Amino acid sequence: MAFKHRFEADAVSAMNSLRALRLNSRLVRSSILVLVLVSVVLFVSSSPQPAVGSDGKASGYSQAVKSSISQLFDKPNPYETKVTEARLARQFPFDKTPRPIEKNIWQMWKVKPSDPDFPQKDFVNQWKNDNPTYNYNFLTDDEILAHLRLQLKDTVPEVLEAFEMLPTKILKSDFSRYLMVYLNGGLYSDADTQLYKPVDQWFDSNKNVGFVVGIEEDINAENWENYMTRRIQFEQWTLKAKARHPLLRKLIARITKVTFDAQKRGHLVAYYKDFKGVDKCKSVNIMEWTGPVIWTDTIYDYLNSLTNPTVVEIDPERTYKPEDELYGPEIGPGENFNWKFFAGVKAPIMIDDVVIYPRLSFRDDISNNCGKYCYVFHWFGGSWKNNGKGEVKPGDEKKEENKKDDEKKEKRDEGCLGSY
């Protein structure tokens, strides 16, 4: 009898294990199905034309696929970046037809250049006058919001909601430039940037290029973390992209998620290292919310997601010598495009339809010899820093930098960095 009871117990245990295995298998299959459907919607929505029959209408198969995808992503879920990406792709499909970037120039400020309080009249006039073949657009904060409501309210309202939730102007400034370029295509440049060469003379102009950005900084020092958040960081004050480019789509979905996550946790507060009275543990770091960290990380992630990309180096020579020691973080598996790949570049690099400009292209502040690929000078107004008081005044830089370095070292191991 004892043997019989043990046998029955073993049989019950085996049945339970089998049920659990079946349940886990169903969960795995469901997860795989969701991933496949997300991939399908991104692929289908990125195609320039749907399949058509002899009557000029979409084929039954194509209609069925799109109908199934539409039902899956009808409901927004801003906490899942893949869902938001898919919804953006469905509403704003990327046109893969070979062509240059749209000839739009976008600049923004809280008031119009005609306002007496506007500080950079000469710079914005230069952008407008030196590029006569471009459609120049200067938008105030109110005009930006009106544009975004018009284009997003009935398409991907969760993205608009995320924008309107942002608690500071700098967050909205960052997000609005990404959104306006994503929705309309063209070039964005800060109002405190000075144009060196007309845009038509830039390396990427009149080429089949989809996204353009420059390296912000390349500091090869053991203490590089005291100066930059990433070893090779990409700037955001001047950028170009085709409308609806998938790199910007990925970025917008990520910022939307960070914003909704912050609201859910009650942390809808912006933090920066010189902000006074802000709890790091109950806020989100601006750099990681809409700034250089999420921007740079998304660019790297996008480049590393490309399948067998074509890489063109205009000049393979680097500013560093082969025997020089390079300082920086460890490189993870699959990170083929990383800080070492871009360290010391002197000329543009093309990776599929992405152009990465060297540091001097958008911030020539090292020497007066601007060179062939120098296009923009950034004056670094930084009005959002120091609790809205702007950049540190000349003469105080070293004092402030030492103070910030000390604070960073003290708080690095606290375990609460107020970021995602």
Give a written overview of the molecule.
It is a single chain. The chain is of the alpha/beta class. The chain folds into 2 domains: 2-49 and 59-72; 104-411, Spore Coat Polysaccharide Biosynthesis Protein SpsA, Chain A (Alpha-Beta Complex), CATH 3.90.550. The chain contains 13 helices and 13 strands. The chain has helices spanning 2-46, 60-72, 81-91, 121-129, 141-152, 157-165, 169-184, 246-265, 286-289, 292-305, 339-342, 385-388, 397-411; strands spanning 104-108, 135-139, 186-189, 193-195, 211-218, 232-234, 238-241, 270-271, 284-285, 311-313, 349-351, 354-357, 376-378. The strands form 3 sheets. Strands 1, 2, 3, 5, 6, 7, 10, 11 and 12 form a 9-stranded mixed beta sheet that branches. Strands 4-13 form a two-stranded antiparallel ribbon. It is globular and about 55 Å long. Residues 1-34, 44-58 and 383-415 have low confidence and may be disordered. InterPro entries: GlycoTrfase_DXD_sugar-bd_CS (IPR007577), Nucleotide-diphossugar_trans (IPR029044), Och1-like (IPR039367). This is Glycosyltransferase family 32 protein. One of its GO terms (cellular component) is mannan polymerase complex.
